[in-house]
Design a protein that fits this description.
It is a single chain. By secondary structure, the chain is mostly helical. The protein is built from 15 helices and two strands. The protein starts with a helix and ends in an 8-residue tail after the last strand.
Length: 420
Amino acid sequence: MRKRLWLILALGVIAFGIGVVGMLDRLQYGLRNVGYGSPIPWALWVVFYIYFIGLSAGAFLISSLVYVFGFKQFEAIGRIAVFTALIALITALLFIWVDLGHMERFTEVFARPGFHSPLAWIVWLYTAYFFLLLAEAWFLMRRSFARGAKQGGFKGGLYRILALGTKEGTPADEERDLKVVRVLGSIGVPLAIAFHGGTGTVFAVTIARAYWYSGLFPLLFLVSALASGGALLTAVAAFIIPNGYRRHQDLVISLGRLLLILLLVEVLMEVAEFLVSLYGTAPAHTAPIQEQLFGPNWWIFWLLGLVGAVGLPMLVLVTAGRRSGLAVGIVALLSAICFVGIRWNIVLPGFVLPELPGLEHALVEPHLNYLERYVPSLMEWQVSAFAVGVALILFAIGYHLLPLEREAGGETWQKQEVSQ
């Protein structure tokens, strides 16, 4: 395993270990020790949920550029994009699962569905999307499993199981597999748009929260997904593929150009949302914007969102990023991480105003705090560390074991075992 995968694995194990304490608290005491309550029912875990769902949708849609629309310049990142989308989806579902009051009741959406509920719709879409990702990943890698099954050791045994009887085949057989992948990807594109747009719809149909009640919100979710997923894949191409930012600099710079376009569209969407909200004088529209700009958590908008997620990356991408794969990789990683701040400002500012004037002063109790007093509890951070740790561990182990890197003459790049 390359040094950077060891680093990812080590960070994952540390985060997992820190998070186990929080998960035990969550399982034993439920939501007793969270920092939110009735006035703020969606908080830190929902922020991370929509963040990872966005990463998943964005990564998958970019993989579709290769397998559906034929952008061969991104082919080296195709398998990795599908794998990243799968890991991000699992992490997102883990976050929303721990947010449920009764975690054991998640099956109710299948056993006793509410057919008029957008929440039920997106759960069914997630399920279909999950199995589609598994199928697409298998068809992409099954010939590699068949070839790798010839080797000895644990990996050879694993590949024999995962091959499910597939033979090594000929180039014509691989071409037929790619046609199946193209069909699955063509189904997945509207599916990914539907489920992530549906996540935005859950916010947009909440009429009691004017900040969200807008037809622009589902589109904003999609644009943010593409931008954050593109940033993550660019960072993976630069730092996880062996010598990515040097040997495959053209790929990384091409991904950087795509990321620049996506970030520009993200900025335009955010500006449109702000201008429309600030044009009126209704507090329900202006207060959430003022909360982002000048509230106690102002730094999330200015430092994480404006500077870290979009401003600095765009500046570097139009200057040093035009010729340096390393510069592109660094700012892409920065953008991917800082997009958490943009997701925070989608969720939390919507709760800045109570539904009834004066409600925030009617009763003082820890779980009846409003936004200006909400701070994620230690348990919330620990559970978040647990989920992120699971994601990092799955990514590191999966990347090491699976044939995710493009094959050339039957040998994957992984077998070069380049230490960095």
